[in-house]
């Protein structure tokens, strides 16, 4: 069932959303789009992001599209990095996250 999003999503490889974007979870109820869930899909450009224990971006899946959200301002020419952890894991201090 997880593969049902792969074929339609390969065309939507990158969606940039503002830092701290809110999504409407119910009529009149908004939450930050920073949750984590396990998702299976083919997002080629997202795979080009470097891994970092102190990433400058995070990946957010809304049920159909994968978005890249900046966690801090990026300098011109700076590499885009993400973590293997979800955003909840990123809330831990840096040292406990390192193996």
Automatic annotation (TrEMBL):
<dbReference type="InterPro" id="IPR046341">
    <property type="entry name" value="SET_dom_sf"/>
</dbReference>
<protein>
    <recommendedName>
        <fullName>SET domain-containing protein</fullName>
    </recommendedName>
</protein>
